[in-house]
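Entry 14. Ran structure prediction on the chain below.
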Amino acid sequence: IERVPKGTKIINIPAKRHPIDLVYAEIILGIVQGNDQKLHIREEDIMVFLDHDHVNLLNHSFDAVDLIPAADVNGFACMHQPRCSSHCMARVQPTVMHQPHMWGLFTVPGIHPKHNVTLGEWYVQTLGLEIPKTLVPVCYGRSFAIKRKQLSSRHNPSFWQHLIAILEDDDNNNDDNVRNAYYTERSWAAILSQSVPPDIANALLHRTRLILYPPFDGLDITVQDW
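Output, structure tokens:
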């Protein structure tokens, strides 16, 4: 992370297990259970989770001087700046926000239909969570910052134990593992951040110039003008 504020304490926690989502969940469970005393993490501290496999996105990331204050104010912040095609970027600055119904319809390409439930179905049926009703944030690249005290306020230890069990299930086939990886990445922000209040969501949508609809790749973008 570039431009780290003076006085920042950097703690490298080796990721001895894969997938990285499992490592994150185990770290968070330990913190929520109060097993983080040796790390001396205070309630107001900002923790940054950085996925090494996505360092190629650092050129499209917020500096620490932007990321940490955002997490301090909002409790949570995505590290990677959202991107879209060159055609899209020529017209707008994309955000990390998704409309709930569009977010929930995402599926993983190439997965056998038997294992390929939608992201929304997985979020509700597998994780046991309710899809946000206003806007859904997504942190692509699995890199984000969160205030320590927000970890405890969002979910209890049983949820993190449940997520860990899903991610380390030895009965999973390859399709299940690929699906879980895609869906967990797209769920971290919704899991850890506070819901966007309706008035804020309405204000954001009112000022939105474009809403992107599939397909998103290349120049083939269907948009709705606002």
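Residues 20-32 form the longest helix (13 residues). Will compare against last week's run tomorrow.
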